[in-house]
Amino acid sequence: MALTHKELEKVARLARLGVDAQALVDLAEDVNQILAHVDRLNDQRIDACQPMSHPLDQSQYLRPDEVTESNQRESLMAGAPAQDQGLFLVPKVIE
Amino acid sequence: MSSNSSSNDQDPTGLLNASIRDLKTRLDRGDHSPMSLSAFFAERIERLDPALNSFISTQIPEIEQTELKGDLAGIPFAHKDIFCVQQGRTTCGSKMLADWHAPYSATVHEKLAAQGAVLLGKTNMDEFAMGSSNENSYFGAVSNPWDVNRVPGGSSGGSAAAVAARLVPFATGSDTGGSIRQPAAFCGVTGIKPTYGRVSRYGMIAYASSFDQAGVIAKTAEDCAVVLNQISGVDRRDSTSSPEPVVDFTADLEKPLSGLKIGVPKQWFSEALDNRVAEQVEAAIAELECAGGTRVEIDLPDADIALSAYYLLAPAEASSNLSRFDGVRFGYRCDNPQDITDLFERSRSEGFGPEVQRRILAGTYALSAGYYDAFYLRAQKARRLIAGHFEQALSQCDVIAGPVTPTVAFKKGEHSADPAQMYLQDLFTIPVNLAGLPGMSVPAGFVDGLPVGLQLIGRHFAEAQILNVAHQYQQRVDFHQRIPPGFGGEGFGGDEHNTGGAA
Question: What is the DSSP string of B362-400?
């Protein structure tokens, strides 16, 4: 199981990472090393196991539907790289 | 074991090795004011940390005498910079958050602050907690106080180095695949990763949410228990936090170990483990037997499968968690974005370091259409297999004892060119995260002047039991009292420059 550069380019696009051609060569090898781990999971004992998404098999409990937080728009927006009058500013999306 | 501690020469004020309870007594008695105690440690950070780089930011505490109430009133500490704190920056070791100010504080912070603990700063870490050497920090590598040419481990390397150098009495950490236990082992301090869900993750920046767990790094098991008492418990702001009742983790510390069954996983003492590390760990287990424990050989196979499952699951969860960093709402934004896609792509590739990008890419692929079953689901099944091994093992013993790391602290740069080698560092710690069990690292000797850790693993929510075992061990040895050369105290304003090598 090895990713080609073309496939990795597609994955980078999905992950919204702007990886240039040179970096892609270095990353491809490293990423393939990570993905090679799947080859080590070819063990029949694993087939019989149920997937485990929570280490204690605890289900997520629900909390009462109550208002607990007040509006904190200003403090939440204070960290935005660009904002104006309560709006996040981004480059033009529709030409 | 022989005792050749020089802690008295190194610690004339007695503050460096003082337990949290002892510090509290001194404060209550009026030997020190909270301000002077904080100033003592703040001065050490300022003077000694340049050789370590264990802090990303420091704070001058504003202490008003009347505010300090609670079980940790006046006790200075540091947070791993993964915990959001409203005052100051929270960076997670990343350029992405280099100038970010959290709009809220983590539950762990609120609980510690409510008990009067005094925050002195935020410690360095591998970017977004991804790493085993602390070389992946945007704010530079951290040095191991025992040998500044070596790594302190990671990702909570700053917290471990700071506690080892006695810059703070305790620090918080987080452990996803070993990030508390491995640096604690490398730096010769005590660290506990509680059961998954024991401590709220609210306000702890997420890496791999089904593994992430907050914990404590301190000098001793007793100090870990004292702090864990304050930070544990269900939190309605974290729906994965456990409703399991919190016991007093200090209550059982003095319990004798007679009758305790200590499981020793034979597969962990293989060629992957350095011989001399193995000797120290064996000696520690023998000491536990002298204290009344009974050794039981147990099976914990498939550490390699655990490692493989983790390195598929953790990047997958990370790729999802880190999708929130988009250059729009908070964090780093690239200059002059051409369009919205350029804004996303460049903000992320310029804001994240190489290891983070590596894991995002691997995780994105593992979760992408057509591969989910083969990668993520299969790894989740493997996780069940590993958890089953622990269940079986813990039906034959009360606690598991073994190594934390295959080797002692390695040199900076030694594994940084080869991620696969770096990942092997976590061979004995990762399985514990897969099963969500509580685990500790306890100082258990030295090889060539570098600390070795003993790992103790308990049943779910049996933190009190492993803390008891660790505490009883620490009554019999003095490894946890050793202070790295050059980081001892000559009292207030003393002069120490010998840090054991070039910084």
Answer: HHHHHHSTTTTIIIIIHHHHHHHHHHHHHHHHTTT-SEE
Q: How far is B461 from chain A (nearest CA, A)?
A: 11
Calpha distance B465→B486 (Å, rounded): 35
Per the DSSP assignment, residues forming a β-bridge with B118 are B76
CB B425 within 8 A of CB B415: yes
Nearest to A91 among B343, B361, B384 (CB): B343
CB-based contacts of B429, cutoff 8 Å, min separation 6 = B175, B177, B178, B181, B182, B404, B405, B439, B455
Segments forming the whole domain that contains residue A35: 1-41
Enter the tokens of residue A69: 């937080």
To the query of whether residue B94 is one of the catalytic residues in this protein, the response is no
pLDDT per position as a tens digit, B1-60: 434 434 466 788 899 999 999 999 999 999 999 999 999 999 999 999 999 999 999 998
Closest Cβ–Cβ partner in B236, B344, B435 for A55: B435
Kindly list the structural domains of chain B, giving each domain's residue range(s) and its CATH number in brackets, ordered by start: 7-304+379-481 (3.90.1300.10)
How many whole angstroms separate alpha carbon B350 and alpha carbon B352? 6
Active site residue B80: yes
Residue B477 corresponds to which tokens in the numbers above?
């040895």
* Catalytic annotation, pick one of B179, B200, B416, B441: B179
Of B311, B358, B435, the CB nearest to A37: B311
Q: Is the pTM of this model over 0.90?
A: yes
- Name residues whose C-beta falls within 8 Å of residue A95's C-beta, 6 or more positions apart in sequence: none
Mean pLDDT of B257-274: 96
In a domain, A49, yes or no: no
Lookup: tokens for B105: 């504080």
CATH code at position A31: 1.10.20.60
> What SS3 string covers B15-46?
CCCCCHHHHHHHHHHCCCCHHHHHHHHHHHHH
Model confidence over B113-169: pLDDT tens digits? 999 999 999 999 999 999 999 999 999 999 999 999 999 999 999 999 999 999 999
In chain A, the number of structural domains is 1
Q: DSSP assignment of A37-70, as one string? A: GGGGG--HHHHTSPP-SSTT-PPPPP--------
Q: For residue A11, give the nearest of B340, B345, B361 by CB distance.
A: B361
Contacts of B354 in chain A (CB under 8 A): 26-27
Does the residue A8 lie in any domain? Answer: yes
Residue B256 to chain A, least CA–CA distance (Å): 29
**How many C-beta atoms lie closer than 10 Å to residue B252's C-beta?**
18
- Asked if the C-beta of B438 comes within 8 angstroms of chain A's C-beta atoms, the answer is no
Q: Give the per-residue pLDDT at B419.
A: 78
Question: Is residue A52 a part of any domain in this protein?
Answer: no
B384/A50 Cβ within 8 A? yes
CB contact under 8 A, B366 and A58: no
**ipTM greater than cut 0.90:** yes
Give B315's contacts in chain A (Cβ within 8 Å).
34
In a domain, A89, yes or no: no
Collect all residues of chain A within an 8 Å Cβ-Cβ radius of residue B364: 11, 14-15
Most B CBs within 10 Å, among A8, A20, A31, A44, to test the B interface: A31
